[in-house]
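Audit log entry. Action: structure prediction of a protein-small molecule complex. Ligand: zinc ion. The ligand was supplied as SMILES and no pocket hint was given, so placement is left entirely to the predictor. Protonation state taken as written. Sequence taken verbatim from the request; no trimming, no tag removal. Recorded inputs:
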Amino acid sequence: MRRIREGEVPFAAGTAVQEDPGRPVFRGNGPDDYVCVECGNVLASSMDPDYMTKKVRIRCGRCRTVNVAVTEEAS
Ligand SMILES: [Zn+2]
């Protein structure tokens, strides 16, 4: 994952907050685990990449960094 840029998206709505640093916010049936850009904590496990769009934002329960799933800008 990557760190969110300031002003990129509002922090208010739509950001999933990881309550327990030891437990991923999302758990799916896909091939990929998503980890915090800052501390490497697992935020979402076994996710399908199709689900992890730019809209998916997760605040790390360990270091409070807000991560977004998509690491590259859409062309
Ligand atoms: Zn973190």
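Audit: result stored. The two ends are 18 Å apart (CA to CA). The beta strands are 2-3, 15-17, 26-27, 32-35, 42-47, 57-59, 66-68.
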